[in-house]
Amino acid sequence: MSSEITPEIEEHRQPDHEIHPQFLTRWSPRAFSNQEVPNDVLLSLFEAARWAPSSGNSQPWRFIIARNAEDRAKFHSFINPSNLVWCDKAPVLVVVASQSKNAQGDTIRTHAFDAGTSWGYLALEASNQGLITHAMAGFNPDAARTALEVPEDYEIYAVIAIGYRGSKLDLPEKLQEREIPSNRRSVEESCFEGGFGKQL
């Protein structure tokens, strides 16, 4: 992946307003190559995530990384079979969590919002580095918490597959049909002015 608008992207994604191409070229394929990701390249993704904004600079996000066979097998134990069928080739798997309470025991109201922003930064940098990412909610959070020894004051949100793009022909036939960049609803459908539901 890169910021270059390929025919595949151009066919499925047309912005209504001018934006940087990186926002169009980042999408979530399922076809992964098992090519390993160099350490410096991988860490650059988390460097990007590090610089995401957060309320009071609390930086509540945490990333648990699996990049060897033993750790990936541990992750495979709590990923749903419907996702494992395609993500088992991904050389890197990551669990995203965020700290839900501060040192005083009070809930950090924006912790999920901030963790999502950090993941977004990670995803964009992955695309800049020629990698693909695919975040999935199809996993057992309780099993993940136990397997990874995640403290109770951390919420677990997603598992992210990271790697280089493979051939869609390696996917099950039903998933091959879905291996295209998805579109989005219009800005006007998501944005209101002066009150909820009031058209721009």
Automatic annotation (TrEMBL):
Keyword list, A-Z: Oxidoreductase
CDD domains: TdsD-like
Pfam entry (one): Nitroreductase
Domain Nitroreductase: 25-76, 86-164
UniProt entry tagged with the keyword Transport: no
Similarity comment: Belongs to the nitroreductase family.
Name of the molecule in the record: Nitroreductase
